[in-house]
Amino acid sequence: VPSFTKKPPEVPQVNYQYVVNTKCGEVSELDLTGVDINISCPAVSKDSRGVRVSSGPLNPSWSEYVEEGWRRVRGELPTAQEQLEAQQLEIVPVTQLQENEEKWFSIDNEEYEVRHIRVTLMPKSVQVFLPQQPQTYYTLLERALLGCC
Predict the structure, then answer these.
(1) Is it the case that residue 34 has pLDDT exceeding 50?
(2) What total number of domains does the chain contain?
């Protein structure tokens, strides 16, 4: 049976058998408080091998808030008071809700009810195939991001 697509090149597998990580499996607890907690992964920050968690100031002044907004408009990285990296993290809210009270997280401009959240980095869990022509790829990606047909 003839094949009309090329087989993707073999990606070399990394052998982790001889890698020693003395901190593997170590559980750390950190209390993060603030109005801005940012979680990013290696697709965004290539120098990281885990989920990067950073938190902004606890109570920013008006001028700090505006300055941070302009920094982000210019495409610069957010200012971080604390940073850590982890393979897995859990967000456990410490707030006690009153009856008929609702609180929300904002994740990528979507609202989620405040509750226990677990984030796990799963590297190489999705394989994506792209068209041969880069221009076609960028057009498809642009349409997907903008929600066009």
Answers:
(1) yes
(2) 1
